[in-house]
Amino acid sequence: MEQAKTIKIKLVRSPIGAPDKHKRIVRALGLKKLNQVVERPDSPAFRGMVAKVPHLLAVVE
Hints:
It is globular and about 45 Å long. Helix content is 30%, strand content 25%. It is of the alpha+beta class.
């Protein structure tokens, strides 16, 4: 059984001053707290969400 590829996404900056659309993207990724790390499938959809707010997020290995 092969394990599906995943990416780990970390919230590194607060979305408080960010536009509402950016806040909704961060929330949709499942991030609530600063420095929180979530694991999501490595799909074009999630990669696109991360690409929209690179100033708030970091992809950790």
